[in-house]
Design brief:
By secondary structure, this protein is mostly helical. It has a single domain, classed as Fumarate Reductase Cytochrome B subunit (Up-down Bundle), CATH 1.20.950. It is about 65% helix and about 0% strand.
């Protein structure tokens, strides 16, 4: 079954590239910080797009399909520990909350980066609109949250490896091909897809929103 549509897959792997780019450019410093800034603005654009796609995208891209109650996530986690074989075509209840945590952390990271400064040669495009004290505080949050983001990414990767090795369920390949093998007893209805022109429209709107935000 086609579970992950093209916009979700492109979003996922673009984030991988951009987070790596942001991390490496920050470690290099100097002129590479300009790359860091552009990478961060692109991340913000993608996050805004993903939020919109979470309401207007296909079945498994929508938040309503995978954001369950905390109780449902706890029940799923307990079942996982006990060896349950519960199957979900899209994100499972725990995975859904992981997606939301990652989106929130990325939004905080990109948002605080707009106001951050390095006390040397570069500051975020909106840093001049707040006091130096506020900019310094948001810079600290930016730095601390990146460690939180790395922790979430580590858990995300370990979870994918756990499902692959222990549960014998490949969650990585479907994020490349879009297709997932269903269990014989799975009765899931074919997911509804959303048109690519709508994804392009929402991506353009997200890019415009970021441009208007940082334009002088």
């Amino acid at each position: 079954m086609r579970v992950w549509d093209l916009p979700v897959r492109v979003f996922h792997w673009m984030l991988v590239i951009l987070i790596a780019t942001s991390w490496i450019s920050a470690e290099i410093g100097g002129n590479a910080m300009q790359i860091h800034q552009w990478s961060g603005l692109t991340v913000l654009m993608l996050i805004l797009f993903r939020i919109a796609w979470g309401f207007f995208g296909g079945t498994h891209a929508r938040f309503s399909s995978f954001v369950r109650s905390p109780a449902a996530a706890v029940r799923y986690g307990i079942g996982l520990i006990r060896g349950s074989r519960e199957f979900h075509p899209g994100h499972n209840p725990l995975g859904g909350w992981m997606v939301m945590a990652l989106l929130l952390s990325l939004l905080i990271q990109a948002g605080t980066g707009l106001f951050a400064n390095d006390d040397i040669m570069l500051e975020g495009p909106l840093a001049a609109r707040v006091s130096k004290e506020t900019s310094d505080l948001l810079t600290v949050i930016h730095e601390v949250n990146f460690n939180v983001l790395l922790g979430l990414i580590a858990v995300h990767i370990l979870a994918a490896l756990f499902y692959l090795v222990v549960k014998r369920e490949n969650l990585i390949l479907p994020m490349i091909t879009g297709d997932k093998l269903l269990h014989d007893d799975d009765q899931s209805a074919a997911p509804r897809s959303a048109p690519l022109w709508l994804a392009a429209l929402l991506l353009g709107a997200s890019a415009a929103a970021v441009w208007l935000l940082v334009a002088d």
